[in-house]
# Entry
Amino acid sequence: MGHFSISDLENISGIKAHTIRMWEQRYGILRPVRTQTNIRTYCDDDLRRLLNVATLCGQGHRISKVAQLSEQELASAVISCCENPHDYARQINGLLAATLEMDEPQLNKLLSGAIRQLGFEDAIMRVAYPFLQRIGVLWQTGSINPAQEHLVTNLIRQKIVASIDTLTPVQPSQARRWVLFLPEGELHELALLFMNYALRARAHHVLYLGQNLPESELQAVYKAYRPHAVCTVLTAVPDRSQVQAYISTLATQCSDCTLVLYGPLMNCQNLTLPDNAINPRLMTDFLACIADVGNGQKR
# Structure
């Protein structure tokens, strides 16, 4: 069971702390307990209720009316209202509430609806990506379990793979060529998989090698495929102390192409980038630089 401070609730729900306090004191929507040092802490049920209340209030319902709903009435009202394709905050809160309930049909309905109404790429960037950031906060605070996290990531993975299959393939000889892979031992694939989609949607050819590629295999692939760019995502691997050495080795192996390095391990320390390497900090930065990567490379 999670134990949240009011600042945790603010960060996860997007509702300001002073509003949460008012709702708690005036309407009793939350039931915090106090620590021995008299600090309020909130549990998973408080978070779930807050997400549902925020979803309905964001649609214009009065808090005085919402506070009177039972848990079942509140959940039913939320399910029926997460339909506006441009109300991203409400969709994200709906996804979070469905995750906490392990409600796979509702998760699938919300994600599929966002994709249908916004288009795949906008749905990922505006709904799924911020949703996953919130999931990360819940994971860090111990408020979701591995089964809930796996449910979310595998469902989004399925959506990405299905969308990739709808794209028209291009021939490698007629397109800019990319190798996408994760280092040996790295299993966090969603960002790389979305990059695969984004590149293919822009008529690039991708050799997608996926998770857990031994370093020794990359050089043979590089020589055979001769890519314009090689891209990897560093989330948990290699060890922080080995990141600089790892990217230096990659830059040497892939010396005559652009090396695209993305992920948390690239953002949390002072690294010296090789001349042929770039580090897009955000996924929006990666999408913006796709057209420029590989220009001027001789093949």
Notes: The mean pLDDT is 85. The CA atoms of residues 124 and 238 lie 27 Å apart.
